[in-house]
Specification:
Layout lengths: L1 H11 L3 E3 L2 H10 L7 E3 L13 H12 L4 E6 L7 H15 L4 E6 L4 H4 L12 E5 L6 H7 L2 E4 L11 H6 L4 E4 L2 H7 L4 E3 L3 H13 L1 H14 L5 H14 L4
Parallel strand pairs: 1-2, 3-4, 3-6, 4-5, 6-7, 7-8
Helix pairs in contact: 3-6, 4-9
Length: 246
């Protein structure tokens, strides 16, 4: 359907609205005739995601991890292939730094068995808290309380904007090193290859340098400050105003 009709529809359209810049590049690569028609709208994540007051964060940590800070890893179909690699990275982090930090594995639409084989044999399993984000805790709260978020979609899945809500929550993001992510996150994320050492190096980098971590928090907040409904509405209105949409 898309192969047959999209070229005709896009050619006839006065303008094409995209959420992210990389999307325009992908479409224009296939259909150069629409290259000049793209307008960036950006993202909008409602008001669910925002930094958490210290008192609320302390309370969540007490209930979830016994008061210990944690890395948050999102387990879902898009990231399932890399969950074992993240666990290996966590092992390197624990072995090298002897830190008490924990790993919270928030599962969505997948089971632990689908993500990890023989988890019962994992050395640091007592430091990993596995939860279903929709049952036990609010996902926005999990994001805002995390020391950092690790979101590593598979090479096949590729791009994902799920790091932006974390940044909007005041939490640093470690994600896969892909051109699309560099366009999306600019210099506000730590980029890792899909191997345990690369991920562990970024985890240790944040842990050993609190000033650097605060810098990434600030960059993320700055990057996502326009991810609001009024800002998106304004961009849409500006687009309509400069073109003849009839």
């Amino acid at each position: 359907y898309k192969r047959k009709y999209f070229p005709k529809i896009s050619k006839a359209a006065t303008g094409l609205l995209v959420r992210q810049e990389y999307m325009a590049g992908q479409v224009a690569g296939k259909y150069p005739v629409v290259k000049e028609k793209f307008h960036w709208m950006g993202e909008y994540f409602f008001d669910l995601y925002h930094p958490m007051p210290w008192e609320a964060k302390t309370g969540l940590l007490e209930n979830l991890t016994g008061g210990i800070e944690y890395f948050l890893c999102v387990g879902m179909p898009a990231t399932r292939a890399n969950i074992t690699t993240v666990l290996k990275a966590f092992s390197l982090f624990k072995k090298r730094l002897k830190s008490s930090l924990r790993l919270v594995l928030a599962l969505q639409d997948v089971s632990l068995e689908q993500c990890v084989k023989d988890f019962r044999l994992y050395k640091y399993r007592d430091d990993v808290i596995v939860i279903n984000e929709y049952q036990q805790h609010s996902y926005p709260q999990l994001l805002a309380a995390a020391y950092a978020v690790i979101y590593m979609p598979s090479e096949i899945t590729g791009y994902s904007e799920r790091g932006l809500p974390a940044m909007q929550s005041g939490t640093p993001v470690i994600t896969i090193n892909k051109p699309e992510h560099h366009l999306l996150y600019k210099d506000a994320a730590l980029f890792s290859d899909t191997d345990d050492k690369s991920i562990a190096d970024n985890m240790m980098l944040l842990y050993k340098d609190e000033a650097l971590r605060k810098d990434y928090i600030q960059k993320g907040l700055e990057l996502t400050k326009e991810s609001t409904l009024p800002a998106m509405a304004n961009r849409l209105w500006q687009t309509i105003s400069v073109r003849d949409f009839k």
